[in-house]
Automatic annotation (TrEMBL):
The chain crosses the membrane at residues 6-27. It comes from Moniliophthora roreri (strain MCA 2997). Residues 42-132 form the Bacteriophage T5 Orf172 DNA-binding domain. The lineage of its organism: Eukaryota, Fungi, Dikarya, Basidiomycota, Agaricomycotina. InterPro entries: Meiosis_regulatory (IPR053006), Phage_T5_Orf172_DNA-bd (IPR018306). Keywords: Membrane, Transmembrane, Transmembrane helix. This is Bacteriophage T5 Orf172 DNA-binding domain-containing protein.
Length: 145
């Protein structure tokens, strides 16, 4: 049994608090946080992948397309951050703490277990949830909050 949603939300909150007080690693470098919407008409919720990258966007798109040829993607603007590993991790934890489900099942198209994919309630989640959250967490990390 994987546990109830309340268990996972509580665990995410605890991990979020622990991660926010961790000292930033010297390996935690500048990068970009990106997101794309996986268009799947068979899903009742909307799937978004949220990750970090240091390479150019076109390289990342090609890399993803080679990994999984399943569904079309709508890519969004990237957000520059100075501590990409830390910010990415905190964004994932906060999404889970707010009860957004992280997809852990194997992809029916390629058989891989993709990381960093979340079920969000609306198609405009980039503007209403993801981007504001990345900006908020990045500002907090930069200000040492």
């Amino acid at each position: 049994m994987l546990g109830s949603p309340a268990f996972w939300m509580t665990l995410a909150i605890v991990k979020f608090i622990i991660t926010t007080i961790k000292v930033l690693s010297i390996f935690n470098r500048h990068g970009k946080i990106y997101a794309f919407h996986i268009v799947d008409d068979d899903e009742s919720e909307f799937l978004f992948k949220i990750g970090r990258m240091s390479q150019p966007l076109e390289e990342r798109k090609l890399e993803w397309d080679q990994q999984c040829l399943s569904k079309p993607h709508i890519w969004y603007d990237r957000i520059d951050v100075n501590h990409s590993h830390h910010v990415e991790h905190l964004v994932h934890l906060e999404l889970m703490a707010h009860g957004y489900k992280r997809v852990i099942e194997r992809c029916p198209d390629c058989g891989k277990r993709h990381q960093e994919i979340f079920c969000l309630p609306c198609t405009d989640a980039w503007e209403t949830i993801i981007k504001p959250l990345i900006e908020k967490i990045n500002a907090e990390v930069e200000n040492g909050v």
